[in-house]
Model the fold of this input.
Amino acid sequence: MNSIVTFFGDKKYLKAADVWSKKAMKLVADKKTKIHRGAILVEIENYAVGKEMLLPFTAPDKRRKIIAFCSCIAKAKYFMGDEEIGMKWLLKAKKIGVVNHLVERIGEDINCIV
Done:
């Protein structure tokens, strides 16, 4: 469910994804759970907390697919009022070249097609 909201932006599942990602964090706060919870927080407009949860997974030594969540940080930064930095994060995500549908969806959300 979290992936449907995160990757495809299907907002009808957003409330349920918020509830389930909270529960998942209580059960298993592993890297995958934290990434999905951070992305859901961005989607529910809790930008600052979501961004902070995602930042550790964007380091250069992390796997490329995880780094693609830079696009979620792009959305958070954009809506936190730092549009220029948001655009830079989106371009970084685009350059990585994986999870392109997520990058495109976030680009549409912040009115920036990359």
About this structure: The two ends are 27 Å apart (CA to CA).
